[in-house]
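Hi R.,

As promised on Friday, here is the backbone we talked about, encoded as structure tokens. Could you run it through your design pipeline when you get a chance and send me back a sequence?
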């Protein structure tokens, strides 16, 4: 499984209709477009999917849709995390993981556990999981960082914890993991803007937000970087940089959804508490898209 996580994953958005329901036709088209344009694996129900605003029934429908369209062509990760360890254990025993290859599990949020609590949380999930687990460290959202030593401890103690998606933005922390991790353990960038330097330092790839809009460009950049063709990768990275920065200027996934709307891929609809970006940022995206033509 670890080899299938080397490259580019896309953190899929959830398209909505104007009536607030999920736009499954747009989701199907998006999944197909990502695969056809070189994405190495798909991530359903990650942060970018607005998963906290989806019902459990909707979550299952999203996963089934992604799995059905994929039809086994690339790996599929399912987001499954939260602050209630026992509830997650129950879900690991009861949910249908047909067609899912691994679980992406975000750090417990709100209750801010100690590093020992983080370690025991993930060790417990590891003991009960029917699938490999990827740690997801995004302290800007969760208020809880997985320190490098805790990640390394889990990587060594739990054979089915196979990777970490690192979105801490802390280069020193991430490079420490890269240097000291077990050989088979993957380090995945969770931040589009710093992926190129992370791959140059030894990371294995990226789970991307921007690839929802530009799958071919992002996957090509990552592939070139992993082949040590840094100059060619840098050219693509810099060409996308203004888009990348704009996508996160007023929050994600509001930014990427506005961009995809302008591309004609989805409607510009989010669920509260997410709200659409400002008209100023929409105009910025329009100018950036015009400059690409």
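Update: got your reply. Pasting your designed sequence below so it's all in one thread:
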């Amino acid at each position: 499984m670890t080899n299938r996580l080397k490259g580019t994953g896309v953190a899929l958005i959830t398209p909505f209709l104007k009536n607030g329901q999920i736009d499954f036709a747009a989701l199907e088209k998006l999944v197909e477009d990502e695969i056809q344009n070189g994405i190495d694996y798909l991530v359903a129900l990650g942060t970018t999917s607005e998963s906290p605003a989806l019902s459990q029934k909707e979550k299952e429908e999203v996963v089934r849709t992604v799995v059905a369209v994929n039809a086994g062509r690339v790996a599929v990760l399912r987001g499954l995390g939260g602050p209630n360890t026992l509830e997650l254990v129950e879900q690991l025993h009861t949910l249908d993981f047909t067609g899912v290859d691994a679980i992406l599990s975000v750090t417990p949020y709100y209750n801010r556990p100690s590093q020992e609590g983080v370690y025991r949380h993930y060790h417990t999930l590891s003991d009960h999981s029917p699938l490999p687990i990827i740690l997801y460290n995004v302290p800007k959202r969760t208020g809880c960082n997985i320190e490098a030593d805790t990640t390394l401890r889990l990587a060594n103690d739990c054979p089915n914890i196979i990777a970490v998606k690192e979105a801490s933005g802390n280069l020193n922390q991430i490079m420490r993991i890269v240097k000291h991790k077990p050989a088979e353990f993957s380090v995945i960038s969770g931040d589009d803007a710093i992926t190129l330097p992370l791959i140059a330092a030894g990371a294995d790839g990226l789970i991307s937000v921007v690839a929802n809009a530009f799958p071919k460009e992002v996957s090509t950049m990552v592939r070139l970087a992993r082949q040590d063709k840094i100059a060619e990768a840098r050219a693509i990275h810099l060409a996308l940089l203004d888009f990348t920065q704009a996508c996160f200027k007023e929050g994600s996934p509001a930014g990427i959804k506005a961009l995809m709307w302008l591309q004609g891929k989805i409607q510009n609809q989010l669920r509260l508490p997410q709200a659409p970006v400002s008209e100023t940022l929409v105009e910025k995206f329009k100018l950036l898209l015009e400059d690409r033509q």
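One thing I noticed while checking it: The mean pLDDT is 97.

Thanks again,
M.
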